[in-house]
């Protein structure tokens, strides 16, 4: 099977490539990534000489750069590439629309023209908006995105749906809750708080810290996407989540306790604009129809993640000082 993975140098994409190459010897992966600030090829250093793997630096809105790859003949596309950070989308919405909406449409159009097998679109629970104290997001919950990020992801979901309905493209959409684990860029809650705590710096908690997220260890997201790729019914949406609801304060306190740091490091700061209060996922469809079960509970997953960041301080340091960006030139030559 020849698989095109977009955004494979990012957090979930790189975990997914490791997951797939570790499992399937008859698979070849082309990783297309523009290497924005969020793309880090160090994440893939251990496999980048593998005959099963090829990296192509390209922007998903650049049709001319992508076309030769589709012309080679692809069995499937797994589409992770996106602008992914809500805070950045509030500061700079345009790039979210360009990458997430136009980039997705560019890929869909090529998949249609070249008869690519299946198109798996990796989306998010944030397209459903926010929940009150009760209830869960199911696949039939109406889309009600609240941030420019989630609105752009909802727009891309609708384009995927339209390419299925109009042109009969074989597609799946996955909507997962908050991921955590190795290689997550330290702009997101868990790695940001870990980094601050390890350096005895203040941990900035937005608002009252009582917003709830439903956490899933990244490897469990990868196994779900693998199942959807192989067994998902075309046109279906699959929610993914492990029912691990925690307030942000609970998450931060666990990190401090595991690191043996004082709670006095917690600093309440101005709230995020349009801050969604609660996310929680009903994942019954993927569990019952495809047989997915997450392997990591939250307590062991968070401990494993803390161990990883403690053991990989150099990875964090390279991200912080920007030296991770030099890897492409070192490995592939300057461009
Ligand atoms: P990330 O920001 O860590 O990685 C995104 C990757 O996409 C980077 O490697 C970046 O270089 C690449 N990219 C960005 N713009 C590009 C462009 N125009 N062309 C080519 N490549 C480009 O993101 P992530 O957290 O790994 O998320 C991956 C996907 O999963 C996203 O689509 C996101 O919406 C979705 N998702 C994330 C989470 C989460 O908790 N992180 C949860 C559910 C769904
Ligand atoms: O639900 C899935 C989504 O999860 C993905 O689609 C997004 O790509 C991903 O970034 C994530 O979005 P969130 O906005 O939930 O994640 P973030 O890590 O930015 O924030 C998690 C919660 O922590 C949120 O309530 C805001 C809060 N927060 C975040 C940061 C970075 C803080 O209180 N302080 C912080 O410094």
From TrEMBL:
NCBIfam families: dTDP_gluc_dehyt (TIGR01181)
InterPro entries, per the entry: dTDP_Gluc_deHydtase, NAD(P)-bd_dom, NAD(P)-bd_dom_sf, Sc_DH/Rdtase_CS
One matching Pfam family: GDP_Man_Dehyd
NAD(P)-binding domain boundaries: 4-305
Entries under CDD domains matching the protein: dTDP_GD_SDR_e
Catalytic reaction annotation: dTDP-alpha-D-glucose = dTDP-4-dehydro-6-deoxy-alpha-D-glucose + H2O
UniProt GO molecular function: dTDP-glucose 4,6-dehydratase activity
Name this protein carries in UniProt: dTDP-glucose 4,6-dehydratase
PANTHER family: DTDP-D-GLUCOSE 4,6-DEHYDRATASE-RELATED (PTHR43000)
């Amino acid at each position: 099977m020849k698989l095109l993975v977009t955004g494979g140098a990012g957090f979930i994409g790189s975990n997914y490539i490791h997951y797939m190459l570790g499992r399937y010897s008859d698979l070849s992966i082309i990783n297309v990534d523009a290497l924005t600030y969020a793309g880090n090829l160090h994440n893939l250093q251990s496999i980048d000489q593998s005959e099963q793997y090829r990296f192509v630096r390209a922007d998903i809105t650049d049709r001319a750069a992508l076309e030769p790859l589709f012309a080679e003949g692809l069995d499937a596309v797994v589409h992770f590439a996106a602008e992914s950070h809500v805070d950045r989308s509030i500061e700079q919405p345009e790039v979210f629309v360009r990458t997430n909406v136009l980039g997705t449409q560019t890929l869909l159009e090529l998949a249609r023209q070249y008869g690519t097998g299946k198109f798996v679109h990796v989306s998010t629970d944030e397209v459903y908006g926010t929940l009150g104290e009760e209830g869960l997001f199911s696949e039939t919950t109406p889309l009600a995105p609240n941030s420019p990020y989630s609105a752009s992801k909802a727009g891309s979901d609708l384009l995927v749906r339209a390419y299925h309905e109009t042109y009969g493209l074989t597609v799946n959409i996955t909507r997962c809750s908050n991921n955590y684990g190795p290689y997550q860029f330290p702009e997101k809650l868990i790695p940001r708080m870990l980094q601050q705590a390890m350096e005895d710096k203040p941990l900035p908690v937005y608002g009252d810290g009582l917003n709830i997220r439903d956490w899933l260890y990244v490897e469990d997201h990868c196994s779900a996407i693998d199942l959807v790729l192989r067994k998902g019914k075309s046109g279906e949406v699959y929610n993914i989540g492990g029912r691990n609801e925690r307030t942000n304060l609970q998450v931060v306190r666990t990190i401090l306790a595991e690191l043996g740091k004082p709670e006095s490091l917690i600093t309440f700061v101005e709230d995020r604009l349009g801050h969604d209060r609660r996310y929680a996922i009903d994942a019954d469809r993927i569990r019952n129809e495809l047989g997915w079960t997450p392997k990591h509970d939250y307590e062991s997953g968070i401990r494993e993640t803390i161990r990883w960041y403690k053991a990989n301080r150099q990875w964090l340091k390279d991200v912080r000082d920007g030296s991770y960006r030099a890897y492409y030139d070192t490995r592939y030559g300057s461009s």
